[in-house]
Structures are given as structure tokens and as C-alpha cells.
Hints:
By secondary structure, this protein is an alpha+beta fold. It has seven helices and 16 strands.
Amino acid sequence: MTVMTSIMRPDQIDILLDAMLAAGRAILEVRDAGPKARQKGDGSPVTIADERAEAILLAALTRAAPDIPVIAEEAVEAGHNPQTGETFFLVDPLDGTKEFIGGGEDFTVNIGLIHQKRPVFGLIYAPASGRVFGGQAGQGAWQGHIDCRLCDTAKEVARTIMQVRRPDPQNLAAVASYSHRPPQTDDWLTAHNIKTMVSAGSSLKFCLLAAGEADVYPRHWPTMEWDTAAGQAILEAAGGRVETLDGAAFLYAKKTQEKPWLNPGFIAYGGQA
């Protein structure tokens, strides 16, 4: 991997996609057996599916890009915070754990790459539906479909180019969370005269914008960097953008603040009106 440009080669991407399929199988096996959750220190739930999936992804990242440090959700919770330079991976092995525990299907496996505080590469896989999304700065975005229980290699994925759509300012479709919708978000939706609501969980909200299935995603509830990195990279590769609530660039590597890796609120946009 070339750290200066942070371009992921096709062979590296295939290694990571294969690992995401394996992680998806592990997650679905736990779901079928009946997931049992416990609380982490921050009060959020975690299951053995999170841990099994993360172990698979970390092993693959060591193979694909051994010189790039990895910040992974469950490892951070366990106290493992490796030193990071200007380039590092962010991993969320099971985004949407509450959806997963509750029997929903909008949970995802996420890998994002940060370079100079910006997300430059992302992969997202939704094991329950089989939808997979990828994007890389300067290289565009794509989507596909693969059943991780029937296929174990990324070479089976047929990829379709993906771009945001041009929105109709009079008929905007917003995507919002099932389980994380504070009053501020509802107020924002009302103030911006949103006509259509599309509900989705986890990082799939970014992917719906990237695929041209919605126009805007407001988020006033806290997230962590590993929740958003892959989705932002894919959305921006498809022609969208993400800003803080006051219109500033939405940046990463917030490791020295009071709560490391915590994101502010943001608005994610598809195409330009």
C-alpha cells in the first residue's frame, strides 16, 4: 500500500471483502443461535458476534496492509489504542448492534481508511440483505450483492457503479435512524420541509444516499468515528458530502479530545440541488 496516496489496490480490497463475508457468516451464526448482549462501559450493547467479526477483520487488515494501524471499536473498549499517524483504518465489526439484537436486518460490517483526517476508502457489507458497497477517493463508488452463506470470495461480487442523484428541492427524501432520532432531528426535518422519510439503520443511511435512494441524512445524536468513516468515504466517492451541523468539514483523528474518537453532529448530503 502506498501511504502517501492511501490508494487501496484491487488485491487488498479483495482480501478485505473476503474477510467481510467471513465476518458476515459469523454474525449470522450468532443471530441464528440467539444473540446474548452485555453492556460496555459506555452503556452500549455488545455481543459475541461483534468480537468474532472484529477478530476476522483485524487478521485480514494485518494481511492486506500490515503497516497501517487499526482503530477498532471493541479493541478500543478493551483499552487497545495504537499510535496512529496521518493514515489509519477505522473498523466497526457490527454497526447497528441494537438492530441486530432486536431482530432487525440493518446491521453492517464497516472498514474505513483515514488519511490526513479525511476518509478516503470505505467498504460496508450488510450480511442479512447481502448488499455490499465500496468507494475510494478519486476512484468512484460501487455497489453489489452477495450472500455470505453461499459465497466466500469477493470474486463473486458483480459491481455496479454508484452515484448520488440530483435532488428535487421541493421533494427531498431524508433518511433517518430507527433507534437514534432525537427531537433536534425531527425539528431539522420540519424546518427543511422534508416530504419523504426513508428509515434505515446503521451505516446503510450513507449508502442509500450514495446509491441515489435518498437525498439527505441529518444526525444530531452522537456517533463514533468508526460508525461513520466507511459510509462517508463511500458517499463522497459517489459525489456526496458530509458536514458538521455548522457547515464545517467533518474530520477524523479526534483522539486527543476528552472522549477520543467521538463525532459531533452532522448532515450528510447526496447530490447538489
